[in-house]
Amino acid sequence: MAGLDLTGRIGGVDVSIIYFSLLLLMSACAYVLARGRAAEGARDRSFHSRPTYHGLLAFSTVALPMFAVFVAGAFLTQLVAERQALAALDPALVADSLRRGAALRQIADILSGRPVSGDVSALAAAVDTARSVRQIAAAAIYALGLAAGVAGLLFALRRITPDFKARNSFERLVSIVLMLCAGIAVLTTVGIVFSVVFETFRFFQRVPPLEFLTGTHWSPQTAIRADQGGSSGAFGIVPLLTGTLLISTIAMLVAGPIGLFAAIYMAEYASPRFRAIAKPVLEILAGIPTVVLGFFAALTVAPLIRVAGQSLGLDVASESALAAGLVMGMMIIPFVSSLSDDVITAVPQSLRDGSFGLGATKSETIKRVILPAALPGIVSAFMLAISRAVGETMIVVMAAGLAANLTFNPLDAVTTFTVQIKTILVGDQEFDSAKTLAAFALGFVLFFFTLTLNVIALAIIRRYREQYD
Amino acid sequence: MNDIAPLAVPPEQADAPRPKITARNINVHYGEKHALKDVSVDVPEKGVMAFIGPSGCGKSTFLRCINRMNDTIPICRVTGDLRMDGRDIYEPGLDPVLLRARVGMVFQKPNPFPKSIYENVAYGPRLHGLAGDKTEIDEIVVSALKKASLFEEVKDRLKDSGTSLSGGQQQRLCIARAIAVRPQVILMDEPCSALDPIATAKIEELIDELRTNFTIVIVTHSMQQAARVSQRTAFFHLGKLIEDGVTDQIFMNPRHELTRNYITGRFG
Ligand SMILES: Nc1ncnc2c1ncn2[C@@H]1O[C@H](COP(=O)(O)OP(=O)(O)OP(=O)(O)O)[C@@H](O)[C@H]1O
Ligand SMILES: [Mg+2]
């Protein structure tokens, strides 16, 4: 929801920038002071920890509380300012959620000095309230922050004694910071999954899951018509599933063998010089934007396939799964080859020696010793490539079309999950129509799809892994 | 130290039995590094020859010349004349893969494949088609493991990974793997370095047994082991072969000062 910017400007400078400069400055001072004092003390007595650790600890005891004050203050200010501003507004306006949101946005704009359109005189009182709340809050944050910093500094300096285990404390602090970062990463993932699940659930209140999963007709546009319920729209994902599978399979048929064999060649046969040139070149291929590849697929490959097909007497659509799959395969070759090459090279030379020493040829050694030992890495390379293929949108949009045909014929036009998600969400949408919510359901299926792939891959790895140490 | 004149015994010496391998003026370079200098030596057929010498003197390097494992090191260059049964090992027409099937090797560091214990031993026989069916392979695997005195310890866990064994067990597994191919020559690079005295004694027993049919070259840092298992000994120093001869003579009555110092533990 729209809110109020916490911190305004003082003399044209963003308040938060001033605060953080102060934070850094004070922390740096704390570091220098504490390190100096510890170094001085260590001249007479032996200290448990080196001066640097006392310095680092002082740095954190200043920086962390100040940072915490800022974050908590920002959050509280936001809350209070919004509450007070709403209290100063016309209750009729507050009761209407749409108008309330717009008013809050406008207040925020006025406060941060952005141009506002329309008549905003009705908001004047609220703006003033919010402004004064924010000014008080900013002052409070500054005062509290400085106090916290100074307190932290004094605390840190007091702790500088020969026996204080600053090194161990710092170690603990580092592990806590790292844990927080890991926690944020995990929470974000969980949050995304939950929001997708939630929207999917809303979608399933309009369209029955069974119809969604087993329906063979996909045409979300019809659901917009107001006189029909969501259930009469066509939301069967089977054609999308077959389209996705068809294109990904073609892509993997291209990228799997070529990528793996290229990796084996580069790792085991090629001269170091060839390898030094070929590997970066292959990686450049991975860097080509998919829009460009989509162009290539639509304008070069698709017509070629069409001409070739016609000369064989085949009827080829101008947009075909084959064209998209081939180009997508090209796109993911570097994923397969580069990662596989890395894991193959990582297999210890002693295993090769052992095999050669028993009278094995190079290809026997590769087949029987190196590939099994590198299998987990190779499987992950393939998984990554498949995920890329399943998630790829641009190439399919350009080369395979939008038609949700239920077909396994690679010469037909097909469409995929990602393309449909994109098509549904492009342009202005009503947020709770079945059509829009379908995008989330598709996202959920896609997520489930890649998750299943990963589980299968893990199972394969566990079953066939030959772990070297 | 600079005036070391190698005192290699002339190959025509009377007490030497028929040589299986003859090396003349072998020089090995790793890039700029001259690792072996003019080494000439005979390895007698059906016997055990020990290579001794301080660390880094080129023992492993010479061993790797004999089965052409040095081919796998790009910077390594081998010159000189090395023959097995009178045939030049480095002649262009010779297939090193076939040579290595006949000249087995146990490496200095145990390097079991990350496969099951059974598969480790069956690897060579399968490659060379030494066994017709499953029962024949079973027989080969069991007998090789028994010879390497590992069978009793692993008979219930043949499906476990070879890398799950202890260092000493891995070493014996590598010995079993090498003898399962039934080579004519077995090159052993410190095969007992990670073994306890009992396992060492068993391996030495095995070596003693094998020498009736095979030619064995063993690198060892243990003087006692060299004295116990070998009939002939060669002493290397700084890439040169200082002297070689009948083991008893080398240990009782070395001709060269350096050898005497090394054997009596005054350096190395
Ligand atoms: N792959 C290699 N690349 C470069 N130099 C090497 C290589 N292998 C061995 N050398 C060098 O050749 C010399 C002889 O090495 P080698 O492994 O034959 O010694 P060694 O007698 O077996 O020693 P140790 O008893 O420690 O095993 C050493 O100086 C070593 O540094
Ligand atoms: Mg060695």
Helix and strand arrangement:
The complex is a heterodimer of chains A (about 475) and B (about 270).
Chain A: E1 9-10, E2 13-14, H1 15-44, H2 51-87, H3 91-95, H4 97-111, H5 124-158, H6 166-206, H7 209-214, E3 218-219, E4 234-235, H8 238-269, H9 272-287, H10 290-311, H11 321-346, H12 349-357, H13 362-391, H14 394-399, H15 417-425, H16 434-464
Antiparallel strand pairs in A: 1-2, 3-4
Helix pairs in contact in A: 1-2, 1-5, 2-5, 2-6, 4-5, 6-16, 8-11, 8-13, 9-11, 10-11, 11-13, 12-13, 13-16, 15-16
Chain B: E1 19-30, E2 33-44, E3 48-52, H1 59-66, E4 76-84, E5 87-88, H2 96-102, E6 103-106, H3 117-127, H4 134-147, H5 151-154, H6 167-179, E7 185-189, H7 197-210, E8 215-219, H8 223-229, E9 232-237, E10 240-246, H9 247-252, H10 257-263
Parallel strand pairs in B: 3-8, 3-9, 6-7, 7-8
Antiparallel strand pairs in B: 1-2, 1-4, 4-5, 9-10
The complex binds adenosine-5'-triphosphate (ATP) and magnesium ion.
Instruction: Examine the secondary-structure arrangement and name the CATH architecture of chain B.
Output: 3-Layer(aba) Sandwich
> Strands across the major sheet of chain A, in which order?
1-2
The percent range for helix content of chain B is 25-40%
Q: What is the C-level CATH assignment of chain B?
A: Alpha Beta
| Rg over CA atoms of chain B | 18 Å
Order of helices and strands of chain A: EEHHHHHHHEEHHHHHHHHH
Protein structure class of chain A: mainly alpha
Low-confidence stretches of chain A: 1-7
- CATH level-four homologous superfamily name of chain B: P-loop containing nucleotide triphosphate hydrolases
Rg of chain A, please? 31 Å
Largest beta sheet of chain A, briefly?
A: 2 strands, antiparallel
CATH topology of the largest domain in chain A: MetI-like fold
Let me know the number of strands of chain A: 4
Multimer state: heterodimer
Low-confidence stretches of chain B: 1-14
